[in-house]
Design a protein that fits this description.
- The protein is an all-alpha fold.
- The chain has eight helices and no strands.
- α2 runs antiparallel to α3, α5 runs antiparallel to α6 and α6 packs antiparallel against α7.
- The longest helix has 35 residues.
- It is elongated and about 75 Å long.
- 20% of the residues are buried.
């Protein structure tokens, strides 16, 4: 594990500071309540230390799993295969193209991570949103097979097209980002500093599309 990256991510979480503050407050309350005796001090430190250690341990396990997860080609492909099974063996051109884009996005992410490890957290989140978009594509394709009314078929088709276009746009942006990083090896002026914000923008746009599709689906069901 990249421990420098791990501590950067841990210290960026507000929960970390809440936990540390709570542990200190609990320790202080225990000492005030039971007195400033050696045994109480030792027990208090042990309890607070165990809480903080458990938190960091869980985070290390989570980040280690995440880091080995979607940036690993075999695991990412396994996730795509899992999603594809929902089609029940049905072949579809939109899904085939989506798979190609998704796998190439993962390749771009691998390439970027190998050069800029500090971006791994954002890259993993990007890949998670891509898989979520893939889930939306499959869900739309499955729904289209069952839809009977023209109105709902058209709405589902819009959801499908929206998700497909977003994956295609993510592919284009990730390819550009990879090229920008290659360029940064030749000219570092102003290129690397904009990389995290570029990835965050991709993630935000992906999440926006996912939320819009879900909201539209909920509204149509309610209507």
């Amino acid at each position: 594990m990249n421990w420098k990256l791990f501590w950067r991510k841990v210290l960026s979480l507000p929960q970390t500071y809440f936990l540390i503050g709570g542990a200190v407050l609990g320790y202080s309350s225990l000492v005030l309540w039971l007195g400033n005796r050696p045994l109480i001090l030792i027990i208090g430190i042990a309890i607070a230390g165990a809480m903080i250690f458990a938190w960091f341990w869980k985070l290390s396990q989570f980040f280690a799993f995440s880091g080995a997860n979607l940036l690993d080609s075999a695991i990412f492909l396994g996730e795509l295969t899992r999603i594809e099974r929902k089609l029940g063996g049905h072949t579809d051109g939109d899904w085939e193209q989506t798979c190609i884009f998704a796998q190439e996005i993962q390749t771009f992410a691998q390439s970027i991570a190998s050069r800029e490890s500090i971006l791994i957290s954002e890259l993993l989140e990007t890949l998670y949103t891509v898989l979520s978009l893939c889930e939306q594509v499959v869900a739309s394709l499955v729904a289209l097979e069952k839809m009977q009314t023209e109105t709902y078929r058209n709405l589902t088709l819009q959801h499908l097209q929206t998700s497909c276009r977003r994956i295609q746009e993510t592919h284009r942006l990730m390819q550009q980002l990879q090229d920008r990083i290659l360029l940064s090896s030749l000219d570092t002026s102003g290129v690397k500093t904009s990389l995290p914000s570029s990835l965050r923008l991709i993630i935000t746009e992906n999440k926006t599309v996912l939320e819009q599709v879900q909201q539209n689906s909920s509204s149509s069901q309610g209507g």
